[in-house]
Amino acid sequence: MTTQQKSQPTLKRSMRLRDLVLLNVSCVVGLSSLAQVAQFGFASLTLLAFAFATFLVPCAIMVAELNARMPEEGGFYLWTRSAFGDRHGYLVAWCYWLSNIVWLPTVLLFFSVSCLYVFGDQALVYADHPWYIGMVCIGTLWIVTLLNIFGLEKAKWIQNLGGMAIWLCILFLVIFGLIYVSRFGSVHEFQASKLLPDFSDFAVLPFFAIVAFCFAGLELAPVMAGEVQHPRRNIPRAIVISSILICLIYMSGTLMLIFTVSEGDVGIIDGVAQSFHEVSKALENPVIRGLGAILVTLSTLGLFGAWLTGAARIPFVVGLDNYLPAALGRVHKRWGSPYVSLILQAVVLSLLLAASLYGSSVKEAYLVLLDMSIILYFIPFLYMFAALFWHVRKGTGQQGIFRFFEKPSWVLFLVTGLGFGITFLSIVLSCIPSGAVERPMWFVTKVVGGAGVLIGLGFVLYLRRMGHDQ
User: Fold this and answer.
1) Per-residue pLDDT tens for 236-245?
2) Which residues, in sequence order, are CB contacts of 347 under 8 Å at separation 6+?
3) The total number of structural domains that make up the chain
């Protein structure tokens, strides 16, 4: 029996096609990802194109098809549970929620550092100051959480504003970048041979997981299908539109970073704001720095708001199914929001932020949290691609939308095999420390051990709940 078949509170359908497109763009496009990918110069463009073809396209097909078959609140949680059973559905939901809990602090870290560029060089001394970073991160977290408690109708404007800010940010980055190149030339000399990644450089391999990770996020909208107007029709349309936009944004944005920031100098956390800063100094125009910093800050806030909103729906639907405390399934009587789930999520995020900043530099905390979140995040994708194969072969749910899935064919094997393979490879690569890590073994222990402990905690909670029900 699905969640929708049970007696449950009714959520408001506030999301339209425009909101879905902006949500997808806000969810998928991370300006910090541009900075990380741009570490490899022109070879970054090849890595992006490869990840788009082998990961984003299979993901888009998978999400659109499974949403059409089961357009209900909960998305991939329902897809997995109906295919492989309650235990696997719970594991997928737990890992996905945890990945967001671990990853969202990295977005806040990026946000807090980007804010400093608004005030110029003198403010950058606080970029590694734990008290400043902690206050900005936790304050932003609770403000966005309160807006979500007041209802999605209000909270969606954070992600909408972020989606529009991303477009303006990339537009101005391209305009100012081209002006910079026309006057001073590119800081990277172009050669066709540089489009091929140097796989003899061991540091390239761990970063491919980040390249694949920067294209993930299309699966979030179906999680809120119960709050979307005409989800069976609008979600696939939004996927097509936003996938094209996402590719254009990443390609053009990365190219501008390559043009304007010297190789080896791109900041892992603040590369985009750094690009505006460098162009501003070269053109002797401080307005460019301020405008760029404001747009980067707003777009990052939209990214955070989108994922905070979507992630809170996971414990909400799992709470409705009684695998987590039933209180998580409560909806506010006045505002129609899953307020208990939102409050719990904010408390956990606050504790994790405080723990990650204690005794660590901002950069080290960022890298540990990022790689741990990639491992936790991609485990559900293994299940989602397997669920696509299962549901298509069994013909479950409503009518699918892709005709090439109507009969068993090589296309199904290609989509599921490619998506599953790239996902599994990314998980393995996330366990390998990059060249930016000073203590590799300690890094691996934190990332792999931390992910293992969190997954184990989920199983303990599940078994205790099952034992209690018996």
Assistant:
1) 889 999 999 8
2) none
3) 1
| pTM (whole model) above 0.90 | no
Q: What is the CATH number of the domain that holds 385?
A: 1.20.1740.10
Find, among 135, 147, 172, the residue nearest to 308 by Cα.
Answer: 147
pLDDT digit string (tens) for 281-314? Answer: 888 888 888 888 888 888 888 888 877 877 777 7
CB 326 within 8 A of CB 185: no
Say if 5 falls within a structural domain: no
Q: Which residue pairs, CB below 8 angstroms and at least 24 apart, start in 358-361?
A: 358/130, 361/128
Q: Please report whether residue 333 resides in a domain.
A: yes
Any idea what DSSP says for residue 395? T
C-beta separation of 114 from 298 below 8 A? no
- Max Cα distance, the chain (Å): 73
Under DSSP, the state recorded for 218 is T
C-alpha dihedral sign at 441, 443, 444, 446: positive
Is 8 a domain residue? no
Closest CA to 268 of 175, 181, 361: 361
Query: What residues are paired with 15 via a beta bridge?
Result: 228
Give the residue numbers spanning the domain of 18: 13-469
